[in-house]
Amino acid sequence: MAVLAGCGEEDRQAERAAARDTSVQVATASAEPATSARKVTRPEAAPAGVLRGSYERLNGRRDNLARYRGDVVLVVNTATACGFAPQFEGLEQLYRERKAEGLVVLGFPANDFGGQEPRSSGEIAEFCKANYGVTFPMFARTAVTGDRATPLFRSLAAKAGAPEWNFNKYVVDRRGSVVARFGAGTEPDASELTRKLDGLL
């Protein structure tokens, strides 16, 4: 079992505040019925939405987000030294159980909150695999807030609000539209999150 880096009192208070965070539902003017969405099977058949640009994976290879168009995508800003890091296990279980239906989990490590992602790409990959068996796509450490945020997280923030702590979860539908954001305190198996995914898959 992983030993997480210790959090100071300020970090613990911030994490407790994040745990009280409620979900944000995002209205989309052109949402299609779920039955129609299931017909979208090829990434190129879906509009771009927020899934744009190429990002480096933990293995150093570039991955164009366009390949995930047509899937239901759960974008999560992660941190291996955060008290919420055990959610990696739930995210991996969710991915394994639902990927055949078209769910993809994308992890974006970030050091924006409390300095809780100090590891290199290789160290992050080793930590996630050894402790939680992570197989879902994980990207190199990046910024997710402020002026240094990547275009992806700027787009997510514009649609549903910026991350307030590690392990925020953005739900992106098959059309590439952000439909919900859940805070760090929402576990991957929480009913409000799984119901949202059920309605999109």
Task: Describe the protein in words.
The chain has 201 residues and is of the alpha+beta class. The protein has one domain (27-198): Glutaredoxin (3-Layer(aba) Sandwich). Helices cover 28% and strands 15% of the residues. It contains 6 helices and 7 strands, in the order αβαβββαβααββα. It has helices spanning 9-19, 34-37, 87-98, 121-132, 151-160, 191-198; strands spanning 24-25, 54-56, 62-64, 72-78, 103-109, 169-172, 178-182. The chain has a 5-stranded mixed beta sheet with strand order 1-7-6-4-5, with helices on both faces. The protein starts with 8 loop residues before the first helix and ends with a helix. Mean pLDDT is 85; it is low at 1-7 and 28-45.
What's the CATH C level?
Alpha Beta
Number of domains: 1
Mean pLDDT: 85
Order of helices and strands: HEHEEEHEHHEEH
How many strands?
7
Counting helices, strands and paired strands, the structural category is alpha+beta
Strand content: 15-25%
Q: Architecture, according to CATH?
A: 3-Layer(aba) Sandwich
Report the CATH superfamily.
Glutaredoxin
Termini, distance in Å?
A: 32 Å
State the low-pLDDT regions, or none.
1-7, 28-45
| CATH fold-type name | Glutaredoxin
User: Rg, please?
Assistant: 16 Å
Summarize the main sheet.
5 strands, mixed
Brief synopsis:
The chain has 201 residues and is α+β, with helices and mostly antiparallel strands. It contains six helices and seven strands, in the order αβαβββαβααββα.
Keywords:
201 residues, alpha+beta, Glutaredoxin, five-stranded mixed β-sheet, two-stranded antiparallel ribbon, 6 helices, 7 strands, 15% strand, globular, disordered N terminus
